[in-house]
Amino acid sequence: MLVGKELLEKSKLLSKKSEDEIARGCGYVGPSGRVLRKSFYRALIEAKGYKLSNSGPGRSGNRSSRGRQAEFKTKVHGNGNLLIGHAYTKKLGLEPGQEYKIDLKKDSKIISLTPLN
Length: 117
Hints:
Blueprint: H1 4-13, H2 19-25, H3 37-47, H4 86-92, E1 100-105, E2 110-115
Antiparallel strand pairs: 1-2
């Protein structure tokens, strides 16, 4: 990823291209091939001489570029479904297609999953 003077020069050369093509041309592409727009724009602003802090809404130190963070909370939807979400299944190492027995403890309102082998 280009920064500073090199970023400004390269982005100027690519100025007739789309924003995504400019960001790609300057190396702002993630491992999945997704354009890292936020990182690109922040680098451009800093290359122009503006100092951006890492603090602000939704940011704390090095975590600012990690995107949404799992909050470990959910709610029951209007249709009665309770969604756990990818962040949590990934954290637990759950894979698509795996089957689980759902155990409910009504008194304490605890839900537990037991793998079916």
